[in-house]
Each structure stands twice: as structure tokens, then as C-alpha cells.
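input
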Amino acid sequence: MKNQSVRHLFLAMCLSISAHQMLAGPAPKAVRKYTIEQFMKTIRFGGSDISPDEQNVLFSSNQDGVFNLYEIPFNGTGQPKQLTNSKTNAIFAIGYLPDGRILYSSDQGGNELTHIYLREKDGAVKDLTPAPKAKFQFAGLSHDRKSFFYQSNQRSPAAFDVYEMDMATLTPTLLFENPGGFFPGDVSPDKRYIALAKTITTSNGDVYLHNTKTKETKLLTKHTGDVNNGPEGFTPDGRKLLISTDEGNQFSYVKSYDLVTGQSTVLDKADWDISGDNLSYKGRYRVLSINNDARTELKIIDTRTNQAIKMPALPGGDINGVNITDSEGRMTFFVNSSNSPATLYSYDFKSGKATPLVRGLNPEIDAADLVSGEVIRYKSFDGMEIPALLFKPKDARAGDKLPAILSIHGGPGGQTRLNYSPLVQYLVNNGYVVMAVNNRGSSGYGKTFYAADDRKHGDADLKDCVESKKFLAATGYVDPVKIGIMGGSYGGYMTLAGLTFTPDEFAVGVDIFGVANWLRTLNSMPEWWGPQREAMFKEIGHPKTDSVALYNKSPLFHTERIKKPLLVIQGANDPRVLKIESDEIVANVKKNGVPVEYVTFPDEGHGFVKKENEITAYKAVKEFLDKYLRGPGQ
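output
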């Protein structure tokens, strides 16, 4: 959820732009319309790696409908070769072992209980972690490349222990038995230390150092007040640990902690959150990622000169997923933007050549027909400035009365970023304005903004969404009575809260596996969330001591107020928001005589990993919006 050590970051800022500025310029050419099937021919990726001989690139993608493993030559010749053929469960690449064998992870139907699998060179597959009710997470290769580390809650459902797996014998050894309260991080090159994160609240955390020899666990980040500390990783020489912190600052930066002297020095600092700071195998390069106003600003720094290397000209967008070989001579990365899905690239440091290997965009789609997200800001009910991303049809003109849909991210502390979304492009291509609101509580805009929704969920953050309607109306091309709200996970809760607690503000709602009953959701959080559960209790409310407040902010108990059409989408295997949440909200709203549509998927969890299901869901979203938001015959 919200702690930066365990969840993804996202979104935006910029100067407000007037309707005149947005609408100025020559009339655009006609935009071709595309089907959802065409948009979903877009390829999504799930990680990459380079083979030990540096001749091939491993990646996972959903190009055939379900995530599987593929391999393609580093120089880009030929077509990808499919290595696995799952028709049911998604397979995500971990990487090559030094002898060329492959590790990957997979769960069962979206239940999030991932296991680690070994694929032999002949294609044979073995589950290295066969415990049926436990979760296993890969935690890196050892520095000597003779073993790898993984984390598991097999011993205790609420705590992840750290194991070392010998590559020759495939025998695991327990390195750290978690007493509870810690999330394990990196293991030092000499295997003596393990970095640990301890979540106190969603805005407060510490870093500990566990000595595997003496079994001592030492606090490294003693502080007062709310400071979000988290371990990044050890330096290749094993002398220092990089620590992310926002101590004395609105945004997170990175310190270098000397394991011998105990002294810390600032390594990297920016005007935004540093979302990643990692060293290559031998330490020649440092990969620095900055969450710059909903975009990833990436620098690859040569540590010998402390200067960023000059990358070749690439299509506009974010560079992410950087993976550098042990030789430090080659790497892979992805380039992604709001109007272009990711493309996988290989790069040779010596020649400076970047080669596109696999392009994510369906060749049937003209990139010129897609729209770029625009970072805007508006004032909310109390004067707080709210960042958002605006996507408008290319042919939008002053005087148009276009329907609009707010898109609300999950979390609650997520961030919508300038990344590609086939659903957003599909809706905009069909004449909808989409505005992705980064309401208060979103990450990426400083810790004050991040904590501004604490204990105010479904109230202050919802008011931020309501206030965005004024900005949309002022564009001159949005019909103010045709604005709906849509979101997944916490965004689904915001959708239900919007229809329940502000029943006259939004014309329709699209809830995608959203929370309806906080009491049940907080009580049913997976045990392996460990201390993150307590952090969520402190931020949102404790189901035992704050039951009245949670009851009051849970849409399920107030469904008689809902009077606008609702679409609900739910995965049957969702371990976070249980299907019964959606079952009950649908049944209750139907009693009001309100149009309710319900789409469920027996083979999905908390999100989509199967392309066929996404097509079904997104088609249902557009048909619902065409019927109840745009209106018949328009």
C-alpha cells in the first residue's frame, strides 16, 4: 500500500493551461478509431535479463494472451523464441543463472502466492519452492554467483525469512529467521549482513542491519518524528549500505552508510523523490531514478567520473527496467510513455548503440492517433494544489460537450504516472476525456501531501476529485453533467465513495475490485503483509478500535444513497478485496432500482494478467459508459 519500501510510486505537476491555449492551433487530421482488440494487441512486459554469454535477452510478455518467457538475440535479429507455454497462470522472468538455466516466478490464478521455478536448458521445469500455502520471493544472486537468495513465509505466515539456495545442489539454507516486524532487503556480498526494513506507519520506517554471524540486529536510522527510511542495497565492495530517507526533507534522497565507521553521507539528492539508486555488479555504474512530476528521470552515472553517460537518441518517454550485465559492457531497458507502450531495448556501452528488440505497440495502430497525457494542477476545496494528468481527444474543440471520466489510482498512496494505458487510449480514441487525479495522499509530491489524507479517506481525498470537475468544465469542451468516476482497488473504493457520499456529483461509476467494506477488508489482509497491516490500521483506522469510523466510510453500509449507474468488475481469486465485497455491493444497489452491471473473472486476482479478460473488461467499460454517460444515439 503506502510505505515506499513495499509499494510502487507514480504521478504529476505543472502550470495550469487555459482552455484557449489547449484548443489553439490548426484543425487536426481525422483520427482513426480502433477496437479494444487492437489496443490489447499491445505487448506488456514483465522483466528482462541478458544471458551469461551476453548473446541473448530473456523477457516475459503477454503477447500471446498470458505472460510467458521469451528469448531474442541481443543484436535484435530474428523473432522472439517462446520458452514457456502457460495457458493459465502468468509466468514472470527472474533471470538467467550463470550456467544458462532460467528462474521464473508464477502464482495460481492470481492468488499472489508466488513460487520460484527453475527451467532447465532442455525445457524441463521444477518448482523449487513447492509449499502450497506459502509465498516465495526472489531476493538476488549471491555476489560469488554460486547461490541465490529468496524470502518465504513458509515457517510463519506473517513473517518472511531469508534463505540461500545452492545452485549446484538446489538445497536451501536458512540465513535469517524473521522474529516478525521486518521486511528483509539486500544481502551483503560477503553474506555477513542482511538489510532489514521496519514499517512503523505508512510515513515512518527504519533500517536495521542483521549480522548473520553474531545474530545481532542493529538499528541504523534512529530518529524522532515521521521519517521514512528504507534500504536500497549494499555496494559491491561490501563496505557501505545505501539508505533511502526523507529525514529533514519533503522528498526522499539517498545516503551512504559506512558499515565500519557508522557514518552516513548524502549520495544523491534531487527536487523530487529518488525512487531507485542501484550499482552495477562491479560498481562501475550507478543507476539513479528520480520520480520527476509523474515521469521517471533516469541517469546512468559512471562512478569513475561521477558523470552521467550520454545515451543515444531514443523515442520520448521514461527509461526503466535497466539491467546491466556482470561484465558491465551491455544492458537492457524499456522505454515507455503515456502515448506509447514499452519497447524493449538492448544497449552496448562500447559502441553506444541501442537496438529495439520488441516493440509494444500494435503495428495496426498509427502512433499519431494516440494522445499524450498533459500534467495540470488545480486548487481543491481548501486551497491545496492537486496534480493530475489530462488526456483529451485530438479533435476536441471549444463548444464540444464531451463526456469525461475521472481515473483514480490505487493505494491509497499510489500515483498515476505518464505511462501507457490501453484503457485510457481506448476511451480517448472513442471521444472520452480522461483525467487521472493524484488526490492528496498520493506519493511523489512530498511527505506532507502524502500524509494529507490520513484518517480522511473517502472525505478530503474524495473532495479533491469532486473539485476537478471545475477544471474540466472550464476547458470548454467537457459537458459538466457528463462526468463519471472510475478506479481500481483503492480507486474502486473512491468510485463507490463518490456515488455514495456525493451522490449528485458523478453521472456514473466504474468500480474495479474496489473496497466496499473497510471492516472486512482490513481484517482480511493477507498475513504476509505483516507490519504493513498495522501501518494501514494507523492510517485508515483499526477494525476493532475504530469500527464506527470505518463503518461510516464504508459504502456497503450506505448503499441506499446510490442513485447513479454502476459497473463492478471483480476477480474471484482476489486475496486483497474479496469477491464477497463486490457481490454485496451489487446486490444492495440493485435494491435501489439503479442500473448495475457486474463482470467477474474466475481466473483473476487483484488485477489482470490475462489479455482475454482485459479485453472483456474494457469492452464492458466502454459499452457501459456509452449507454449511461455518453447517452443513447450520441
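quick obs: Residues 501 and 561 are 7 Å apart (CA to CA).
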